[in-house]
Amino acid sequence: DEAEIELLRRAVDLSSRLFRPLLRSMRCGVAESAIAGTLEHMARKAGAEKMSFETIVASGERSSLPHGIASATKLPAEGFVVLDYGVVLDGYCSDMTRTVHLGKASGEARRLYLAVLDAQQAAIGAVRAGVRAGEIDQAARQELKGTKLDRFFTHSTGHGVGLEIHELPRLAAGSDTILRPGMVITIEPGVYLPGKCGVRIEDTVLITPKGGQYMSSARRELLEV
What we know:
Helix content: 25-40%
Radius of gyration: 17 Å
Low-confidence stretches: none
Structural class: alpha+beta
Number of helices: 4
Order of helices and strands: HHEEEEEEHHEEEEEEE
Mean pLDDT: 97
Strand order of the largest sheet: 1-4-5
Distance between the termini: 39 Å
């Protein structure tokens, strides 16, 4: 209902507001775990009850791990860093992923990032009440197929979010769940090149009678830090 949607908006907004200040702590030689600690400290100071799941900070080659929990690995001078995190605020969860590039991004890195961003936009463009969840997953994969990257997208496109971080519906191949107005879902395509790098972009989307409405406000274009 509208009250719950407002609580979710507040949680999503808090996550979005943490992103830009966090970038100031990201530099070569800083441990991934230190970046996660800075983020979690900022979140608690801003009113979060806790993080909604264990924070992912995966840099360099580790960015090719879809679930690269923050480690003692130090950030490289150049390369992608995947930041996947969420907060719990007033009992409701948020979930957001941004991928930034340390140093100047190569042409190949830019193409990889833009391919994932295009896949996310294609998936969000397919969101509307009455469609099957599997169709959203297919839209993202079809977009990546055009750049021959679909085989490197190794997880589902998204999931519901609310009182728990992972709720129904699951946006995966073959999912027959019908999307309804008021559902809140994530859209999070990713591409992971084993031993090289990875990119994921995730936003929370409200399903309305007219389509999908972004709830996240953090910038989505490629940022070079």
